[in-house]
């Protein structure tokens, strides 16, 4: 059976690009691996953050648009985004988040302890210690590979029809059912990052798209050939995928599963070094070839943003 290795990326909506960079690059210590634009709305940035090399399973992306209204987290959405931190690093993160004025709470799920908090736009995030997954070699301030966020642990899905969503995870995407506990179903993919997906069984309000909510979750395809097979498989299952879309750093298809959540399947290659060398990732405004002619106009429209160095003294 064709299987995805897990999450490729998660894309969310926020208001302020600089505030988002300050939080994800400054507080959480992720690398800004790509500064580009929303291909469908070029007047809006598309910011990508991940580990040192921007590997699939580590990438969270944002559409920062000041004019959008505050969203509401609920059914039909990814409710919580989970990140893996190294074993033994939870005290470091609790102290660091507190020092940046981020309020945290503790929770447990499937025998794992989570540090839960929100980003500046109200997007729910949690950290969980796990030994699995390669260490992140990107260092920021006092964040070194011994404590750095490795990548996604997974996500919590809020769905209109939990068991229909479960069918898609298990029977279409190839995740393994790990059981039910305290109002959650858990599924596991084979990859080391972004491999643990929980479905919340208790009802919630209907989600409203806007700042502080996830726009979509993307699953990994090995390459273009694999993506074509995925498209055919989705069509056979009556899930009506879109045409294959060119996203410059990957190709993908989208579909909405019966629980209301927008899913994407995206290729691992070509990746973020297609237009910037590894040591320069995230430094310049990168445009796809078909929008390069509009660079001057876009640079006038887009606000100036930067990754600010942390004062460690």
Automatic annotation (TrEMBL):
Claim: Calcium is one of the keywords in the record: no
Name of the protein in question: Ring-cleaving dioxygenase
Gene3D superfamilies: 2,3-Dihydroxybiphenyl 1,2-Dioxygenase, domain 1 (3.10.180.10)
Keywords for the protein's UniProt record, in alphabetical order: Dioxygenase, Oxidoreductase
CDD domains attached to this UniProt entry: PcpA_C_like (cd08347)
GO molecular function list: dioxygenase activity
VOC domain segment(s): 6-130, 151-268
Pfam families per the UniProt record, alphabetical: Glyoxalase
């Amino acid at each position: 059976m064709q299987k995805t290795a897990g999450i490729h990326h998660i894309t969310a909506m926020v208001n302020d690009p600089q505030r988002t960079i300050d939080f994800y690059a400054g507080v959480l210590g992720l690398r800004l691996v790509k500064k580009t634009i929303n291909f469908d709305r070029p007047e809006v940035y598309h910011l990508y953050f991940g580990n040192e090399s921007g590997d699939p399973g580590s990438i969270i992306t944002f559409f920062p648009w000041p004019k959008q209204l505050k969203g509401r987290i609920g059914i039909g959405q990814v409710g919580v985004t989970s990140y893996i931190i190294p074993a033994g690093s939870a005290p470091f993160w609790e102290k660091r988040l507190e020092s940046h004025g981020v309020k945290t709470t503790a929770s447990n799920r499937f025998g794992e302890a989570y540090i839960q908090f929100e980003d500046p736009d109200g997007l729910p995030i949690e950290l969980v210690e796990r030994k699995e997954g390669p260490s992140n070699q990107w260092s920021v301030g006092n964040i070194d590979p011994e404590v750095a966020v490795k990548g996604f642990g997974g996500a919590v899905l809020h769905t209109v029809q939990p068991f229909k969503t479960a069918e898609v995870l298990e029977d279409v995407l190839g995740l393994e059912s790990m059981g039910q506990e305290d109002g959650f179903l858990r599924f596991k993919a084979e990859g080391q990052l972004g491999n643990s997906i929980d479905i919340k069984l208790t009802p919630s309000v209907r989600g409203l798209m806007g700042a502080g909510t996830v726009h979509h979750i993307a699953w990994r395809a090995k390459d273009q050939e694999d993506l074509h097979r995925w498209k055919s498989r989705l069509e056979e299952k009556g899930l009506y995928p879109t045409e294959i879309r060119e996203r410059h750093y990957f190709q993908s298809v989208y579909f909405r599963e019966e629980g209301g959540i927008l899913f994407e399947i995206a290729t691992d290659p070509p990746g973020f070094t297609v237009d910037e060398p590894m040591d320069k990732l995230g430094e310049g405004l990168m445009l796809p070839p078909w929008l390069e002619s509009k660079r001057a106009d876009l640079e006038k429209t887009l606000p100036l943003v930067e990754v600010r160095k942390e004062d460690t003294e």
